[in-house]
Amino acid sequence: AFFVAQEVGKRMLARSRGAAPGSFTGGRIINIASMAGLKVLPQIGAYCMSKAAVVQMTRAMALEWGRFGINVNAICPGYIDTEINHSHWQTEQGQKLVAMLPRKRVGQPQDLDALIVMLASDQSHFVNGAVIAADDGFAV
Questions:
Q1: Which residue is catalytic, options 11, 44, 47, 85?
Q2: 79 catalytically annotated
């Protein structure tokens, strides 16, 4: 995430330097963190630390690059049913985890679509440095 954001940021910053005063040339960076970056979970401490770093990186970049019209935000998804973990949700352990969730369900990748589209659009021009939990209430 860091290296990609740095490369994208360089291009956005270069574009903004050559722009006419007052014109919008910034951009949008949307980092994908995790609710594990907001809430420490047992047995995955290193993962939680890495996702917390993405959260703080988002805030730091928003602070540094916001004045150039670059909005940097993060989404912190909860448990999402993906190709990688799909079979886990069918196991006894997976079902126990689902039973502990506030609404007793895991999300689908498309549950994040509207949020990503909004953050990428002009509708989010006043949203910068936000870390948005998209976790169906898990981190509450």
A1: 47
A2: no
User: Residue 125's closest CA among 44, 71, 49?
Assistant: 71
pTM (two decimals): 0.90
Is the pLDDT at 22 greater than 60? The verdict is no
Per-residue pLDDT, 70: 94
Amino acid, res. 104: K
Question: Which neighbouring-strand residues pair with 75?
Answer: 32, 132
Instruction: Evaluate whether 6 touches 70 at the Cβ level (below 8 Å).
Output: no
Residue with tokens 């995430």: 1
For domain 28-79+106-134, the CATH class is: alpha beta
Residue 138: CA atoms inside 13 Å, Cβ hemisphere, count?
Answer: 27
Reference 2, options 47, 66, 58; nearest CA is 58
Per-residue model confidence as pLDDT tens digits over 32-66: 999 999 999 999 999 999 999 999 999 999 999 99
